[in-house]
Amino acid sequence: MKHLTIAQLLDKYPFIIDFFQQNLLDVAGFENQTFTEYLSLMKDAAAEDIAVDITALPEELKAYIEQMRLFLGLGQDSGVNSLTILPGTDKTGAAEHFKRLDIYPSQIVSIVGPTGSGKSRLLADIEWAAQGDTPTGRSILINDTPPDPKWRYSPNHKLVAQLSQNMNFVIDLSVGEFLHMHAESRMVNNAGQVVKRILDGANELAGEAFQADTPVTSLSGGQSRALMISDTAILSASPIVLIDEIENAGIDRKKALDILVSQDKIVLMATHDPLLALMADRRIVIQKGGIYDIIETSAEEKNFLIKLEQMDALMQESRRLLRSGKSVTAASGMSFLQ
Amino acid sequence: MNLVIFSGPPSSGKTSVILKTIGAFQRRGIKVGVVKFDCLYTDDDILYEKAGILVKKGLSGALCPDHFFASNIEDVVRWGNQAGLDLLITESAGLCNRCSPYLIGVKGVCVIDNLSGINTPKKIGPMLKTADLVVITKGDIVSQAEREVFASRVGAVNPRAMVMHVNGLSGQGAYELSTFLYDPVLQHNSVQGMKLRFPMPSAMCSYCLGETRIGESYQLGNTKKMDWTKEET
C-alpha cells in the first residue's frame, strides 16, 4: 500500500472512496501521489480543521481495506449453513429443557412466551454468538463449529438483522435513492437490478403499491414494513433475521415470510399471534429466562392453521370491502364461515 | 481501579447504556461509580443514585465542557480510588462534535444513535474517530437498512474500533459491552501525566475573553473567516 499512488489504490480497492469521503479527505488532484505523500502535503491547519490525525491515517486506511476485503469475501467462505443453540440455564439457575437446537436456512422458528420471559436475552445470545460467556451460559455454533470472531467485532458482519414493530425510516430520501444507498454500502455490482427486485418484492407484500420516487418517510405503515422486509431479505448482510411481530395491517404476512425464506435466511420470530406462531416449523417456548420447550408444529396444528388463515382472509377481505365503500354481504362472498 | 471514559452526542443514550451495563457489573459484585460531566444542567445523577450507584456530577457552567473535563479528571480518579471503586466510568457529552475526552491508555467508548442520521459519523470528529469501542443505540426504531449503512460508515471513519449495537431500553447487548470494560489486572491509580488522544481546537479569541460586540475591529486572536471565493460544490 505504501508505494501505490492514490489512483492505483482506487483502482485496486474502489471502496476506499468511502473512506476518503467519510473522513473528509479531498484527494482530487492528488491521484498521482501516494496516500502518505498526499497527507504530507496537507497543511497542519487544514488537518486541524477537519480534525484528523495525519500520522494515524495510513494505518487506518490499511485497517479499513482489511475490513472491507473481509466483508467482500462474504459468500465464498462465510455462508451460514446452520445455527445451533446449546443449552444453558434459566434465571433460577435450572438447566434448560433441551439438548440442542439446530436451525437451517429457510427454516422459520417462532419464539413464544410472556413479555419479560427472556426473548431479548435469547436474541442477544444469538447476535453475540455466545460461547458460554453470557448470563444464560448458552453456546451458539455456526456450521457446527464455534463462530468466527468477526461476527462479534466487525461492523459489517452482524449475524442478526432485526425487524421490529417500532421501526421507521428516518432518512429523507426517495425509495429508489434509499435502496441505492443501501446497495452501495453492501458493494453490490448490479445495484439497479437489485433495487428493482426489492421494490417489486415490497409491492407484492404491500396492499397499496408505491414507486421508486415515493419518499420513504411518506410510506404508510404497511408499505414501510413491506419495504423493510423485502430489503432485509434481498440486501441485508446478515444471515439470520429476527422478527419481533409482523403487524397485521396492510401487509401479507405469509408472503413476507416466504420472501425471507426464499433468500435462504434463518428466520426467528417472536410473536403472540397464533397465526404466525403456527406458520413456523417449530416454536421455542420461553419461561423464566430459559428455553422451556421446543415444539414441532403438528399436523393437527397445521390443519388448525388453515382455519385461522381463513378467518384472517375474512378479516382482510372485510377490511378491503368496507374501505372501498361496499357492504359486507353474502353476495360479496363473505359467508363461508357461516 | 479501572477507568473508562464514555462520551457521545447529547441524548444519544449514554446514560441508559451505562446504567444497563452497570447492572451486569452489580450482579458480579463489582463496585462501579460514575462521574457525570455536563455543561449547564443534568439530573442523570438521580438516575444513577436510584440504581444504587455512587455518583458525582460536574457542571462546567461558563467553561468549555471538554476543557473542564481535562482539568478535573485527575481529581475524579483520586475520588474513585478513595471510594474503593473497582470501576470508574466518566460520562460526558460532546457538545460541538470537535473534541474528545479520551486519554491514551484509558479505554474510550463513544455512544452514538441511529436516529441521528446516516451522515452523523462524518460530522463527529475525534470523539468517534479515536474511540476504542463504538456503541450504536436506538437500532430498534430504525430500519435494518439504515442500521447497516450507519454501522458501515462508522467503520469507515474508525476502522480500528469494535462496533456494537446496544439497546438502552431492553439492555440487549449491555452485558456483552460490560465484558470489555473491566479488567481486574489493570490499575489506574492516577492519570497524572497522561495525554489526551487528540488536542482540543486552538481557539483563543476576543470572544473567548468575553467580547460581545460584532465587527472586525473587536476580533482579536485566533479567528477564522469563511471562504467566499471558492465555488460551492
Topology summary:
The complex is a heterodimer of chains A (about 350) and B (about 230).
Chain A: H1 6-12, H2 16-22, H3 35-41, H4 44-49, H5 57-72, E1 83-86, E2 101-103, E3 108-112, H6 119-127, E4 139-142, H7 150-153, E5 160-164, H8 175-185, H9 191-205, H10 221-235, E6 240-244, H11 253-262, E7 266-270, H12 274-279, E8 282-287, E9 290-296, H13 299-323
Parallel strand pairs in A: 3-7, 3-8, 5-6, 6-7
Antiparallel strand pairs in A: 1-2, 1-4, 8-9
Chain B: E1 2-8, H1 14-27, E2 32-38, H2 44-50, E3 54-59, H3 65-82, E4 87-93, E5 107-113, H4 120-123, H5 126-129, E6 133-137, H6 144-157, E7 162-165, H7 174-178
Parallel strand pairs in B: 1-4, 1-5, 2-3, 2-4, 5-6, 6-7
What is the CATH class of chain B?
Answer: Alpha Beta
Write down how many β-strands of chain A occur, each being a DSSP E stretch of 2 or more residues: 9
**Helicity of chain B, as a percent range:** 25-40%
Physical arrangement of strands within the biggest beta sheet of chain B: 3-2-4-1-5-6-7
Number of DSSP helical runs of chain A: 13
Instruction: Name the largest protein-protein interface in this structure.
Output: A-B, 58 and 49 residues
Q: For the CA atoms, what is the radius of gyration of chain B?
A: 19 Å
Gross morphology of chain B? globular
The top-level CATH class of the largest domain in chain A is Alpha Beta
Return the CATH topology of chain B. Answer: Rossmann fold
The pLDDT mean of chain B sits at 91
Care to describe what's here?
The complex is a heterodimer of chains A (338) and B (233). Chain A is of the alpha/beta class and 338 residues long. The relative contact order of chain A is 0.12. Chain A is globular. In chain A, helix 8 packs across helix 9. Chain A folds into two domains: 67 residues; 215 residues, 3-Layer(aba) Sandwich (Rossmann fold). Chain A contains 13 helices and nine strands. With 233 residues, chain B is of the alpha/beta class. In chain B, helix 2 links the parallel strand 2 and strand 3. Chain B is globular. The mean pLDDT of chain B is 91. At the A-B interface, helix 2, helix 5, helix 6, strand 5 and helix 8 of A face helix 6 and strand 7 of B.
